[in-house]
Amino acid sequence: MRSLADLDAQGKRVLVRVDFNVPLRDGKITDDTRIRAALPTIEELRARGARIVLVSHLGRPKGADAALSLRPVAERLGELTGTDVLFIADGVGESARAAVDALEPGQIALLENIRFEAGETKNDPDLAKALAELCDIYVNDAFGSAHRAHSSTEGITYHVKDAAAGLLLEREVAQLSAILADPARPLVAVLGGAKVTDKIAVIERFLEIADTVLIGGAMCFPFFAVEGHGVGASMCEAEGLEPAREALEGAASARAELVLPQDLGLAERYAADAPRRDLDGVDVPDGWMGLDIGPRSAETYSKLIAEGATIFWNGPMGVFEFEAFAAGTRAVAEAVARANGTTVVGGGDSAAALTQFGLADQVTHLSTGGGATLELLEGRTLPGVAALR
Ligand code: AMP
């Protein structure tokens, strides 16, 4: 994979695919982490006199949609870089071409939401070509979109002379690949979240390569159900039963030990103000639902995390959005933050949880990817990464 360092960027038009898919409320950016994550690549290219064209998607628009315009991102990026960012509002065409050609070295332009173009998610070669015409060099720094073969993440690479990975994408791939390649042991994987079907491939992978796999979140109920425990009114994905059964069977001969919670935090309803009752054991009575792992499990998981030399964490241990049911997720977050080993946290809700607990800067690597992070760890080839080889 080529790097920024391999490029001769001075005076060149460099199109950088970034991931500016930020959360918006009433047109205001509520979290600019993703914009900040792209700054090292942008600043490096500016310092080297590149003429920078940024391309990103935002949300899932069906055609042009003012509520999903990247204009507020251009403003925020201008504040963060201390320079005016030219916003190109009218899509990929002649006027975009003219605007880009007029950029000075070190100047930055941002194209409107690339998913306003119908061809983007279809990896339309005409759109890929039109994008390629806006640049001399293509750089992909959008790790969070690297698992998608779209015109701006994959197709464009067939039409440019030179392509390279941005600093963020390169670091993501290096950190995550190191877990698979040659991790310091013990390798401990902590996997939680809502649906076992979303994570089953990652669970199976870690059963083969890790030393310990700790399971939490609603994801544990399909496991408990196939073990014959009552799950009460807990969220228990029906399609998750068969995968959970297979994972349990596979675990018997796998390298890793599969660890499920031994106690649970229960509620009678799914609500922030529902009183919590801790259950010593995992047989959830009728009318109750498990919304967190219990205190004994939290302690066991924290101890196993502390013993890890490499720790990967993805997915909350319970409904951490409700204060009364955040304890298990907080315990895991704190144990990961405290651990002496290399700690890598998968994006999405685990990142949100770490940020909520003020621990986001206390891990070795906080991944910006969700689906991309999991797919890479499953051992799948990411089209956006493969295209840079
Ligand atoms: P995921 O996107 O699969 O990582 O799932 C994250 C979501 O799972 C969070 O919004 C949690 O509130 C939710 N979650 C975790 N544990 C539970 C549970 N025991 N019951 C219901 N929802 C849960």
Features of this protein?
389 residues; Rossmann fold; 2 domains; six-stranded parallel sheet; binds adenosine monophosphate
- Biggest sheet statistics: 6 strands, parallel
Tally of strands: 17
CATH superfamily of the largest domain: Phosphoglycerate kinase, N-terminal domain
Report the β-strand fraction as a percent range: 15-25%
By CATH, the topology of the largest domain is: Rossmann fold
CATH class category of the largest domain? Alpha Beta
The run of helices and strands is EEEHEHEHEHEEHEHEHHEEEEHEHEHEHH
Gyration radius (Cα, Å) is: 23 Å
Your description of this structure?
It is built from 13 helices and 17 strands. Helix 1 (about 35-45) crosses helix 2 and helix 7 packs across helix 8 (about 240-250). Helix 3 (about 95-100) links the parallel strand 5 and strand 6. Strands 5-6-4-1-7-8 form a six-stranded parallel sheet, with helices on both faces. The model has no long low-confidence stretch (mean pLDDT about 95). About 35% of the residues lie in helices and about 15% in strands. It has two domains: about 5-170, Phosphoglycerate kinase, N-terminal domain (Rossmann fold, 3-Layer(aba) Sandwich); about 185-380, 3-Layer(aba) Sandwich (Rossmann fold), CATH 3.40.50. The chain has helices at about 35-45, 70-80, 95-100, 125-130, 165-180, 195-210, 220-225, 240-250, 295-305, 325-340, 350-355, 370-375, 385, and strands spanning about 15, 25, 30, 50-55, 85-90, 110, 135-140, 160-165, 185-190, 210-215, 255-260, 265, 275-280, 290-295, 310-315, 340-345, 365.
